[in-house]
Amino acid sequence: MVVYYTRKYSSLLERCGLRRNFMALEVHRDVGVLVFLNTNEHYPIDAIIRVEWHSNLKVTFTLLVDPNQPNRIESVRFEKASELCDCLEHLDIESKRNAKGQVISGVFTNTMVPKSEAFATVLLSSMKSLKKKASWIVQ
């Protein structure tokens, strides 16, 4: 388990630096869970659809919460390049640095079929709801 302290990066005031909201990310690699400690939201690592990071240390996570709802997007900004690289490494995402030690922007897209139990539960519930809708249409 590793905890990373970042700045939330979603509103215009936060982007301009006029307001700071800090967010703590906790990565449980052994269990396969990403936790946003401020809101106590738990996401399976397999639910991460896309991660995009920039040289200004901003990271955008796109998370699949429920197939019937829009994806959840969380944007944070790290204080140091080493923290960003360590966080991505704990999520099994490869990042690169240039000769000066700055992070090179990149994108990770999860193309694997999610295998976690949590994702399977969400998928099964959505299949059941589709089956109910289909049986209603056929009758």
Description:
The protein has three helices and eight strands. It is of the alpha+beta class. The chain has one domain: PH-domain like (Roll). It has an eight-stranded antiparallel β-sheet. A hairpin with a 4-residue loop joins strand 2 (22-28) and strand 3 (33-36). The longest helix has 22 residues, at 117-138. The N and C termini lie far apart (51 Å). 19% of the residues are buried.
Which key phrases capture this entry?
139 residues, alpha+beta, PH-domain like, 8-stranded antiparallel sheet
What layout of secondary structure does this protein have?
Layout: E1 2-8, H1 12-16, E2 22-28, E3 33-36, E4 41-44, E5 48-53, E6 58-63, E7 72-77, H2 81-90, E8 106-109, H3 117-138
Antiparallel strand pairs: 1-2, 1-7, 2-3, 3-4, 5-6, 5-8, 6-7
CATH architecture: Roll
Strand content is 25-35%
Profile the largest sheet. Answer: 8 strands, antiparallel
| Poorly predicted ranges | none
Number of helices: 3
Q: Give me the secondary-structure category.
A: alpha+beta
CATH class: Mainly Beta
Order of helices and strands: EHEEEEEEHEH
**Overall pLDDT level:** 79
The count of β-strands is 8
Gross morphology is globular
Strand neighbour order, sheet with most strands: 4-3-2-1-7-6-5-8
**The CATH topology, please?**
PH-domain like
**Beginning-to-end CA distance, first to last residue:** 51 Å
As a whole number of angstroms, the C-alpha radius of gyration is 17 Å
Oligomer kind: single chain
Provide the number of structural domains. Answer: 1
